[in-house]
Design brief:
Layout lengths: L5 E10 L2 E11 L4 E5 L6 H8 L7 E6 L2 E2 L9 E4 L11 H11 L6 H10 L16 H15 L3 E5 L7 H16 L3 E5 L3 H7 L2 E6 L2 E6 L1 H7 L5 H8 L2
Parallel strand pairs: 3-8, 3-9, 6-7, 7-8
Antiparallel strand pairs: 1-2, 1-4, 4-5, 9-10
Helix pairs in contact: 2-4, 3-4, 7-8
The structure holds adenosine-5'-triphosphate.
The site of adenosine-5'-triphosphate (ATP) has 11 residues, from helix 1.
Protein name: ABC transporter ATP-binding protein
InterPro entries: AAA+_ATPase (IPR003593), ABC_transporter-like_ATP-bd (IPR003439), ABC_Transporter_VariousFunc (IPR051782), P-loop_NTPase (IPR027417)
Pfam families: ABC_tran (PF00005)
Length: 238
């Protein structure tokens, strides 16, 4: 197998001694789309925070395209959308996208930004509007636009569908499929099992600090002898 895009090995994370992740092993291949699911508080965001070195790992390792996640340069191939994303409130949409482009070492291209807004069904008025005046869905789309404009090898998205209307969700799915068609890796957390089934090659179910299932959505249904993914998920986390 080629070098995984993301490799988690025996990852342990505790908060003030309380374990949240208790030995996570997961390899995600380049070009693969993997969905991370789990009940509220299972540790999905914590796993992603470990990946970006936002929180200290207690033991184990994470490699990004073969390099330790602790090296800042290792995270360069990744675009990240955090949970409850909110741009700096005083920046307009265009200022935020230009700022993110600069951080990623790219040039801000107004025509590309407009095309990306169209792809995500975000009103162009958002470019002139300060973030504090934008709706939840608008800021979410702005964060997604910044990710996709960065044009990275891998997209790590924490509940990317959060706050999106049905049209925007459909557009985001198209955009994710487009990224994959270009060879990008996608790793995202979600509570929407229908989205997982539609988009993902494999899914990982996090429960009780461990990955209880890793495999295709079809294999998950088969493993729990369930007619639907929801039933399989419920059986897995029972
Ligand atoms: N900074 C922190 N300090 C202490 N405990 C924390 C911290 N961050 C998260 N936790 C705890 O770790 C556990 C996992 O939280 P996390 O946010 O990773 O879960 P999640 O699966 O993303 O949840 P949700 O689906 O609700 O977003 C929870 O019990 C949470 O209270």
């Amino acid at each position: 197998m080629s070098t995984p895009a993301l490799r988690f090995r025996q990852l342990v994370k505790r908060y003030a001694g309380t374990p949240v992740l208790e030995g996570i092993d997961l390899d995600i291949a380049p070009g693969e789309c993997v969905g991370l699911v789990g009940v509220n508080g299972a540790g999905k965001t914590s796993l992603l925070k470990c990946l970006f070195d936002f929180v200290r790992v207690d033991s184990g390792s994470i490699d990004i395209f073969g390099r330790s996640h602790r090296e800042p340069g290792a995270r360069r191939p990744l675009a990240f959308l955090p949970e409850r994303f909110m741009p700096p409130y005083y920046l307009s949409g265009a200022e935020f996208l230009a700022y993110m482009a600069k951080l990623h070492g790219n040039r801000y291209d107004s025509a590309e930004a407009h095309a990306m807004l169209d792809a995500l069904d975000l009103d162009h008025a958002a470019l002139a509007m300060p973030a504090r005046k934008q709706s939840k869905g608008m800021t979410q789309k702005l964060g997604l636009a910044a990710c996709f404009l960065a044009n990275k090898q891998a997209y790590v998205l924490d509940e990317p569908m959060s706050g999106l209307d049905p049209k925007a969700r459909a557009r985001l799915k198209e955009r994710l499929q487009h990224a994959r068609a270009q060879g990008a890796t996608v790793f995202f957390s979600s509570h929407a099992l229908a989205d997982i089934e539609e988009l993902c090659d494999r899914m990982a179910i996090l429960h009780g600090g461990r990955l209880r299932f890793i495999g295709t959505p079809a294999a998950c249904r088969a493993a729990y002898d369930a007619a639907t993914l929801e039933q399989a998920f419920l059986a897995c986390v029972h």
